[in-house]
Design a protein that fits this description.
elongated, Arc Repressor Mutant, subunit A, mainly alpha, 164 residues
């Protein structure tokens, strides 16, 4: 492995400056980065772009990390819980309790339905009144005269006389 590093922290290969493109050299840091990005749900294309390599190079050098894409999130959660547990042993309990609470909520969501969803499904929603169009609203307003005007009062008395 090379002892010289470029500005990005990547090792400079031995044939640097020679003919042809130098082969990508995977580092422990890059392997950890790939694991973390897999846990965050990144696609292979996005990970390759973040590492500044092509997709075939990513598959060639990091195939063992890509193989465990399905459990990468669980591994990250386990590592976080372990760090929080070590901090809890030293007296900092807050982060550990937050992670345990988040884990419990995740487990609750996977094993049973929340009560809010059960009550919403059990109670039928009341039916809404049908929405009236412009013409129906105008017709309804015509049958209900405005009592604030003399003409409206006259029409109201006339309707009351017909209804009784």
């Amino acid at each position: 492995m090379a002892s010289n590093f470029d500005l990005f922290g990547d090792p400079i290969p031995a044939n640097h400056g020679g003919r042809g493109r130098p082969e990508h050299m995977p580092t422990v840091e890059n392997r950890n980065r790939v694991n973390m990005l897999l846990a965050m749900g990144w696609s292979n294309e996005r990970i390759a772009a973040a590492l500044r390599v092509t997709l075939p190079t990513l598959r060639k050098h990091y195939f063992s990390e890509l193989k465990y894409r399905a459990v990468a999130r669980d591994r990250l959660d386990a590592a976080l819980l372990m760090k929080a547990f070590e901090a809890a042993e030293k007296g900092r309990l807050g982060p550990f309790l937050k992670l345990v609470e988040r884990n419990d909520l995740m487990n609750f969501g996977q094993t049973s339905r929340p009560r809010v969803a059960e009550t919403a499904a059990a109670e039928p929603k009341p039916e809404k009144a049908p929405k009236l169009g412009k013409k129906e609203e105008a017709l309804l307003a015509a049958h209900q005269p405005n009592a604030g005007t003399p003409m409206g009062e006259l029409m109201m008395r006339r309707q009351q006389g017909l209804n009784s």
